[in-house]
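Help!! Second protein's tokens look totally different from the first
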Amino acid sequence: MKVINLMQKPDLPGSLLFQPAGLLALPHSVEVSDALSVNGSGVGGGSNSIKTALGEYFERRHFYREILSSKYGFLSESLTGAEVNSFARAFIQTASRKVSIREVEEHKFTLSKVVRALDFSMCLIPTVCISLSSYGLDDDNFIYPLRDTCGCSFHWCPNLAFFRRREGVS
């Protein structure tokens, strides 16, 4: 069964495709997509397949289209020395050509504002680390060319996502 969103609202998916299992022992499959080719899929029993597909769709949509750059600058402008070193050591492994730690430290990145999970303080990290889109990241793509999302970054409840507990439950 295919459900099409005729409202054409950009904050909602354009269609949901429900594919019931051929045998009762197999899970259902759901595909969610929009007019700009962002897709999410989910497999599972009952509404879990719908929840999984919607979660993947919103995750991909976010990381493809909603990551904004705030600044153009060096890693050291808002990161600690240890954080700069960690990024540099990671990037010399992911780069599509040979680069040194010094080159990474002296490279001007397109940066995005994020919140540290450790203490909830703000900092700037390379947009290329969190955006699946290459748009506007031409100077940084060689440092981190192959990107994907973690597959579990979309949560229904922020408290559960950050603190592993539900609202009002300690």
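Here's the second one for comparison:
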Amino acid sequence: MTAFPFDLPLAHFLTMTASVIAGALVADSVETSGRRWLDRVRRFLGIR
């Protein structure tokens, strides 16, 4: 029972770290695709 209190926070910490990294990756890809979309819109409006 001594190791269990250490295992639980460690698993929680790993889960939080993984979710933070995944969130950062998703936000980065969304930001880059958003920039591409904005560039397309600007080009479209610039051509018109």
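Reply: Different proteins will give different token patterns, so don't panic. The chain has one helix and no strands.
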